[in-house]
Amino acid sequence: MTPHLARKRFGQHFLTDKAVIDQIVQSIAPQAGDPMVEIGPGLAAMTQPLVERLGQLHVIELDRDLAKRLRQHPGLQVMESDVLKVDFTALAADMQVPRLRVVGNLPYNISTPILFHLLDHVSVVADQHFMLQKEVVERMVAKPSTSHYGRLSVMLQWRYDMEMLMLVGPEAFEPPPRVDSAIVRMLPFSEAASVNQALLSELVQVAFSQRRKLLRHTLGKWLEDKGFDGAFDVQRRAEEVPVAQYLALAQQLSR
């Protein structure tokens, strides 16, 4: 079979380091029969050891040539699609399972949209293990009052317990990316604060729109326009507000 050339428009960087692949698979700990979906299987470096342990694996691949190759692998159910168009809730229903395990080496150019897309389907997710740009993982797990803490931190920490598991250097890929990578584990909370997601998203986006300024310049004006008459300290920067306080504010606004 002719070698596949990585395509820039799909952000393709194929994981080739066998030791790294083994570590990732051990972290995922696949068990026979687990209902698992892999995003961006590429040349099947991680796909093969996963399907050997699972027996069957659903994969989502946008690249037509790669999808064709993947269909030759036994045990794979191949969805040739843009992951942002995949309805994971419907997929879980089709597979007749309550929750899915989701894994993948996500394309770095659209990793944040994928994370937000999956957030819409978190009720059918058992866990997620992803390879991402290290800087993105740092933003996901960041604590308040740090430079990495932002909108992504708040929106994901509302619904997931997250942990950076390991760092992966560029040399583990072909072609090597220009950034360091990391593996993150995301476990949905069994119970999360009941919040209007669209409202929370808008609130947090406004708060971090000018992160160097005090919140009275951004969120303060937005709250006034909403007719908010509750108590919320806007004499601080967005990065100083813990996730729980953003959630509480969104709940007050919903009332």
Question: What characteristics describe this protein?
Answer:
255 residues; alpha/beta; Rossmann fold; Helicase, Ruva Protein, domain 3; two-stranded antiparallel ribbon; 10 helices; 9 strands; 34% helix; disordered N terminus
Explained architecture:
By secondary structure, this protein is of the alpha/beta class. The protein folds into two domains: 8-188, Vaccinia Virus protein VP39 (Rossmann fold, 3-Layer(aba) Sandwich), CATH 3.40.50.150; 197-254, Helicase, Ruva Protein, domain 3 (Orthogonal Bundle). It is 34% helix and 20% strand. The strands form two sheets. It has a seven-stranded mixed β-sheet with strand order 4-3-2-5-6-9-7. It has a two-stranded antiparallel ribbon with strand order 1-8. α8 packs across α10 (243-254). The termini are far apart.
